[in-house]
Amino acid sequence: MALLSVLTPVLAVVLCVVIGFMLVRSRETETTSTTSPGETEGAPKADFRPWVDQDLKDGTETKGKDDEDGDWVDSNEEEDILHVPYSPPGYPVETMLERSKDFYSLMNQRRSVRFISPEPVPREVINNAIRTAGTAPSGAHTEPWTFVVVSDPETKHQIRRIVEEEEEVNYRQRMGDKWVQDLSRFRTNWIKEYLDVAPYLILVFKQIYGILPNGKKRTHYYNEISVSISCGLLLAALQNVGLVTVTSTPLNCGPQLRLLLKRPANEKLLMLLPVGYPACEATVPDLKRKPLDGIVVHI
Fold first, then answer.
1. Residue 142, CB half-sphere, CA atoms under 13 Å: how many?
2. Angle, CA 203 vertex, CA 202 and CA 207 arms, to 5°
3. How far from 193 is each of 45, 102, 159, 163, 164, CA to CA, in Å?
């Protein structure tokens, strides 16, 4: 009895330690099992943004060049590029200043417009704007862009249906309260009437690799940056002819829109632009742009 009375406190301590260890292991298992893909263990849950990583994923991600050496073109197979003289027109300083001010004045009128007129726009005007976008620089001159121009009413409506379904989920779930609150002052939501109304929708796809006539793949360096630059030129070209648009990047719509428009697996949606004349009742937020000293640093 004396021995039992001595061992009882010891056994109690050991039992408590075992139970505590089991509880800790159980919590660790739950934490591991509930960690979302792409979420770093131990990171604050608020930092996880599924819309960041999943936006352009559509189950057709390509393997790297090292995995498919036989399918990729070797740079030694391509011909050298002829270099030719280049003599662009020059202007007197006074003319340069005048032209620079005129162009700035034109572009400073550019606004994101969500109220677009159904009035027809000549297709050749759209083609010329896209030709301008195609003059953008690109990594190794791969020109990794495809501009899909949609004017068919039924296809535009299908695009609207896909976008609105996903955008409602974005606003209600994916984007989070802060993002939705930040957008509220611009009076935007998941209803995109302009996708039906605008005479043209231009869907800009980035080609993550090229496909040559012989079936081999060609690396497209800096494809997203290159296509983004071309989009900037496209916006300028549209502004130059008096057309308006709103830069739309509908989250998680890329895969469905790619399939709807029958684009190949090497193309990923980067931007959607409804294009037309501004509607008579069009309004825009009264925004101010940063002054020059807020965006430039001279050294």
1. 23
2. 135
3. 35, 34, 11, 11, 9
What backbone torsions phi and psi does residue 241 show, to the nearest 5 degrees?
Answer: -105, 10
Structural contact between residues 132 and 234, judged by C-beta atoms closer than 8 angstroms: yes
- Beta strand spans in 157-208 (E): 200-207
Give residue-wise pLDDT tens across range 217-258: 999 999 999 999 999 999 999 999 999 999 988 778 899 999
Contact 148, 205 (CB under 8 A): yes
* Gap between the Cα atoms of 219 and 78, Å rounded: 13
CB atoms within 10 A of CB 4: 8
Q: What angle do CA 284, 289, 292 make, to 5 degrees?
A: 160
Q: Outline where DSSP puts E strands in the chain.
A: 145-150, 200-207, 209-211, 217-219, 267-275
How many Å apart are CA 54 and CA 87, to the nearest integer? Answer: 46
SS3 at position 205:
strand
Tokens for 236, please give them: 């300028």
**How many whole angstroms separate alpha carbon 228 and alpha carbon 67?**
28
Nearest 10 degrees: CA dihedral of 211, 135, 200, 126?
-130
CA distances in angstroms from 165 to 54, 118, 146, 197, 288, listed in the order given? 16, 23, 25, 18, 32
Rg (CA), the chain: 28
Asked if 101 and 202 touch (Cβ cutoff 8 Å), the reply is no
State the number of CA atoms in the 13 A half-sphere of 94 facing the CB: 0
pLDDT tens digits for 47-75? 444 444 344 444 444 444 444 455 887 76
Whether pTM > 0.90 for this model: the answer is no
Residue 22 burial (CB count, 10 A): 10
